[in-house]
Design brief:
heterodimer, A: 344 residues, Alpha-lytic protease prodomain-like, Alpha-Beta Plaits, three-stranded mixed sheet, 7 strands, B: 161 residues, alpha/beta, five-stranded mixed sheet, globular
């Protein structure tokens, strides 16, 4: 594996993380394949079991999306794709999220209607090695098998997702870590059938499908925000990415700069940085000074790509400190309204 | 994992038999009445001419044996498949026989047993024969399935058709 995302050469730490993440993605796919076959064989007519199976089937999507995105993102920028292929991560993320959301809705509907229709799931015997065994025990064994490995995989993937700034990997790790709850809900559902509580099965299925739905909503929301060029945030989307502040501090520390602001766009893995600088009165920065500043911003972090430095008489409105908070959206809307009016 | 382990133990420890019937079919049938819905489909089930006397056929024999195994008397209810499946859903019969196969469309409304015998069908395809029980009455279903497995019908029926 060449250690680059497009034109971005990866530092050693990221290179190692990437190799490990790819390996873990394959391990996940291998494990899921065994889990899917095992569960399919013993599935029977338990709704909870069917829903847990569907969730495992859906868990195939994020690792596949990750592997595809990593492959695509390695292509170098070209005249046709001057920004490179980093957005493939966003596309993969959105596809994965949409699949989860759709299946989540479908499964919520299915299990809720099973519950309302008061469906009594029949679970009979299977013959294992010549002995008749109640299928419920086999289902429980299969579900127990699927409980632990995803949690370990998720835990291993999470730090890699942070290191690589990869949202698909992060979403995958997050879902893996919560996967044991699916298994336990499924087991509770099947045990419920066992003790004669017919509703336990559909109720457990409902719980599982709601968790799938929640994953879908979270993923679609984060993916759409990234594709909308929202301010760069940490990989879990919880806070502003620290590089925003670091770049701004760096700009402010330059002697000939009166004030500076940066627009960081998260392309997936890497950021594109547009640095706006207002020179001190009377200073006209030389070409060399601008190029040096660009280079030094790039050197701050491997993620900073395509750094452009633009000298401006004053900072663009959306970068001024007084609109950085809640007003930003308000102001954007007003400007857009005016523009629309002018055009008409 | 730990949670589910504890749950398994808790269930096992409560003295509840797993699986149990939500409606207690097996407990009611044991030493009581086994209500069997029969729809004629020779040679699996046949009705006597003149409408009196008990039904006959391979499945009738099996069910009679099953009733004996549970110490129950058999109550025969004759009707069409559709009518008997409706009775099954209402809990008016416990089991329906009549040469049903695993491909029966009733699978969504009743619990079919696992096939107790496989014979070649009219067009040479495999016919997996089953009985229908009330959906969700899993202790009863499992008891019947275990009984059918123990009879090893496949060995006896080799040359039925």
């Amino acid at each position: 594996m060449s250690a680059a995302f497009g034109a971005t050469q990866l530092p050693e730490e990221q290179e190692r993380a990437l190799r490990r993440a790819v390996r873990l993605a394959w391990v996940t796919l291998g494990f899921l394949a065994t889990a899917l076959v095992l569960m399919y064989v013993v599935m029977g007519s338990s709704q909870a079991m069917r829903t847990a199976w569907a969730e495992d089937l859906l868990s195939l999507i994020p690792p596949v999306a990750f592997l595809v995105a990593v492959r695509v993102t390695r292509r170098r920028p070209s005249p046709g794709h001057p920004y490179g292929y980093h957005r493939s991560v966003g596309v993969g993320h959105l596809v994965a999220g949409t699949a989860l959301l759709t299946m989540g809705l479908l499964l919520v509907w299915e299990s809720a209607s099973a519950l309302l229709a008061r469906e009594h799931p029949p679970v009979g015997v299977m013959v294992v090695l010549g002995h008749p065994v109640w299928s419920g025990w086999l289902m429980i064994a299969a579900l127990a098998y699927t409980a632990v490995p995803p949690v370990l995989l998720g835990r291993a993937k999470l730090p890699l997702a942070r290191t690589l700034h990869d949202r698909v990997l992060h979403a995958d790790a997050d879902m893996n870590r919560a996967d044991w709850m699916t298994a336990v809900a499924g087991i509770v559902g099947v045990l419920g059938i066992g003790v004669g509580l017919w509703w336990a099965d559909s109720a457990a299925a409902l719980v599982i499908s709601l968790s799938i739905l929640k994953d879908g909503v979270t993923n679609v929301r984060t993916a759409v925000r990234a594709l909308m060029d929202a301010r760069a945030s940490t990989v879990d989307g919880s806070e502003v990415h620290p590089l925003v502040a670091r770049v701004e501090e760096h700009l402010a520390a330059v002697p000939w700069v009166r004030e500076g602001g940066v627009r960081l766009r998260d392309e997936g893995h890497v950021f594109h940085a547009e640095c706006f600088v207002v020179p001190r009165d009377g200073v006209t920065p030389s070409l060399q000074a601008l190029a040096d500043l660009g280079g030094s911003v790039s050197a701050l972090d491997w993620k900073l790509r395509d750094v452009v430095v633009v000298p401006v008489p004053e900072l663009p409105g959306e970068l001024l400190p007084h609109v950085a908070g809640d007003n930003a959206g308000e102001r954007g809307r007003t400007e857009q309204g005016t523009a629309g009016h002018d055009a008409g | 994992m730990l949670v589910s382990g504890v749950l398994v133990l808790a269930v096992a420890g409560c003295g509840v038999t797993v699986p149990s019937d939500p409606d207690g079919t097996l407990d009611r049938v044991r030493d009581g009445q086994l209500r069997v819905g029969v729809t004629p489909n020779p040679p699996w089930t046949e009705l006597p001419a003149g409408d009196d006397g008990p039904p006959a056929g391979l499945e009738v024999d099996l069910v009679t044996g099953f009733a004996g195994h549970l110490g129950a008397d058999v109550d025969w209810e004759v009707g069409s498949e559709e009518q008997l499946v409706a009775d099954l859903e209402d809990g008016d019969v416990d089991v329906v026989i009549g040469g049903l196969t695993a491909r029966s469309p009733w699978a969504s409304r009743a619990a079919l047993t696992r096939p107790y015998v496989t014979v070649p069908g009219e067009r040479g395809e495999e016919e997996n024969h089953v009985m229908a029980t009330r959906a969700g009455e899993n202790a009863f279903l499992v008891e019947l399935e275990r009984y059918l497995i123990a009879q090893d019908v496949q060995a006896d029926v080799g040359g039925l058709r």
